Amino acid sequence: MTNAEQSGRNGAIGTGRAAGRLGTVRAVLWLVVAILAVRQIAAAPDTPKDAALTDLTRFTGTPFGGLVLKPLTSAAEQSLGWGWTFGTLLLVIALGLIAARALPQPVTRRTALLAAPVAVTLLMLSLPVRNTLYLGQTSVLPVLLVLVGCFLVRGERAGGVCVGLAAAFQPTVLLFVPLLWFTGRRRAAASTGITFAGATALAWAAMPHDSFTYWVHHLAGVGLGGRADDLANQSLHGALLRLGLTGPLEIVVFFALAAAVAVFGMRRAVHYARDGQLLLAVAITGCVVVAVSPTSWKHQLLWVLLAAVGRVGTKQSSRYVWPVAVVLVMTLPAKMMVPNVDVLHPVRDNVVLLAALAAALVVPFLSRTSEYYRAPVPTQYAPKAQTRFHWAPLLRRVATRPNLLLELLLIRVVYAAYQRTRLEATGSRASAEEHARQILSVEEALFLDVEHWFNHAVVGIGWLRAFFDFYYTSFHFVVPLTVLGLLYWRRPADYRWARTAIGFTTVLALVGFFFYPLAPPRLMPGLGIIDTIHGVQDFSRPDYGRLTELANQYAAMPSLHFGWSLWCGLTIAIVAPKAWMKILGLMHPFFTLLAIVATGNHWVLDAVGGAMVVGAGFGLTHLLTGPRVAQGKDGRKADKGVPLNVVSGPPDPVRG
Asked: Whole-angstrom Cα distance, residue 343 to residue 542?
């Protein structure tokens, strides 16, 4: 066999293996879709009775929507719940399939195979779909009808009828008329307007009182579905009301802003439609709809998720920032996205609206004529380590600096998930105290039971108590974030493995919180430990006052206070160029150990547990990503994060 034949055979084998892996991933994704669908259908009988569609007196849609749903009010409540959930999920699946089919061409074979299950999965996980599974919610229909009219049906008039019916369910969908008109589909634009007018007139003739109430009394729906200043209303109108504007001034400002958003947003939508990115144009128009509607409730925000199809950035490493941000905004509560800081409350309360405005007005989506649209600057990878598992492709060591926005988003979301998980892993008071007695017995056997002596010794020295209280409450977050920030700025390659190590450490600690709830020394009755930070605890109350409303007081084993500090010390000792820096870094876990014992917040063995999860975190990082990349002696070269022998990432073997 010649070298050329052998090379061709190896290439065919590699392509076959890659195709097999893609097929496996695709099957797993469809399995996830099936599991989500079964879960939602199984939850249908548990629908609260006040959410049942037994009448239309509380219906918050348009009169035409009420007219369509009116025949369903005579159906049995339980059968209607099952049927509604199943039908909604079918619509969501159809929406995902059409969106995947509408992606701008050409696409890679990988994208073609995985787009549909990924789209359906994201739709099912999104907050709008989860809120639309209640009886009477029709918010999936307008989005689906628009996509059907733009991508599926043949003929402009038929497409316009679909968009017109969508507008009958959500009137601000009429903003698609200028999109159709200025992209040359004028018959579709006219058909949209005629269909909307006919459907609205039909509803007015059949339900005149409801139509008058909706169109006149409620001022295009502002009075329906709850207070317009509720956090669930992610529109410009809702945001202005939450900012304190009311009365005629608010109305004037709202109409001015809505007009500006509509004009500039529709110009961008028309531009991308002419560029051949019609799905992105539809998403931008939908984002404008969200912003300018008097009310855009949670179940009406599905348009924003479609904006994830836009491509942003010239580098491969930054290509995922925008879609990841959109998916996080549309699947996670706002309080997980934005820290609970007073100055950031306006951002937290309007995060979906801000995402919609960004997509409509700000985000610089790439044109299909850009040289980077299909071929972004490739990511640079360090050479493969011999000890690294081949089945862990997500942990390839990237040599270049990671995208800062993406890192901040992921760190914020992971920390919010950590907080929530830690709070849920409470355990009972009895089991936590029993575990504490076990720990104390082990410490007594090992002569490590120094908590009472050290706590009372520190309490007797005022300045020392103040020092340890300050150290415990202040350095737990500041030092790790500072280390991560300095690594990101000065040594990007080291930042990646260090960030991965602390991530594994935190996940392993959560396992300990779940399976071994442990009362800290300060919450043990009869032990005599003084809580130097929170004061005397009321042991007659199982929740020990207001503290357990804020955090899980039994998440003591392992101690992440000590674990994170040890991670900081080891990381500094590994990467710091000077001996005095290494010593200073290692002093941080030493002082943290003294602080957690002095304040009565941890047992000595909690620190041992923290050290164990840190060791396991570094071990898993080494196991999955290989040894740390060697840095050059040239400081400037290390600053750029370019390790020795950097190689480009391998090409995609299954491009279409």
From this structure: 34
